[in-house]
Design goal:
The protein is mainly β. The protein has strands spanning 45-47, 58-61, 65-68, 79-81, 89-94, 103-109, 115-121, 127-133, 144-147, 157-162. Strand 6 and strand 7 form a beta hairpin. It is globular and about 45 Å long.
Length: 163
């Protein structure tokens, strides 16, 4: 079974009257190694209360960053930036989860459901899957499975998306 959180609160393509999107005004950085509790993320991220219920679903290990914790099937801890990135470069330093059936992902998504994905599938420590979609149309012909020269679940690595 697979479960995904892909939605939009306001989709202009469907005729929704959407407010202007606040954009990052320049370079922005969030360093998870400085966070000690869930409230520390509020300056940069919206912590979705539907998928991160409390501090127990995120743990903070001083210097190592944040861990998102899944307690039961269908849990999907998610962070959403408060501002929009219309173009540019995103770098994430992460260690993928080794849990069978767990998907560690980096998803860039617009209100119109344009999307760029990096997905690490738990149990497959030497590959990452990438894909992109337009207007929410799940066309998997753009997807690729990339072999990694390292174990993505053993240590932290930097992953970058630039467009």
């Amino acid at each position: 079974m697979a479960s995904a959180q892909t939605w939009s609160l306001c989709n202009p393509v469907e005729g929704d009257d959407c407010k202007p999107n606040p954009a990052f005004g320049g370079a922005a950085k969030y360093d998870f190694t400085t966070a000690t509790k869930l409230d520390d993320l509020n300056s940069f991220f919206t912590v979705d209360p539907g998928v991160v219920y409390n501090d127990k679903q995120m743990s903070f290990d001083g210097g190592a960053g944040a861990s998102m914790i899944i307690f039961e099937e269908s849990n999907a801890p998610t962070l959403t930036s408060k501002e929009y990135l219309f173009f540019g470069k995103v770098e994430c330093v992460l260690r993928a989860s080794p849990g069978q059936g767990i998907i560690t992902s980096i998803v860039l998504q617009s209100d119109a459901l344009d999307e760029i994905d990096w997905e690490f599938i738990g149990g497959d420590h030497t590959h990452v899957q990438t894909n992109y979609f337009h207007l929410g149309k799940k066309d998997y012909t753009y997807g690729r499975k990339h072999e990694l020269p390292f174990n993505a679940m053993d240590e932290f690595h930097a992953y970058t998306i630039e467009w």
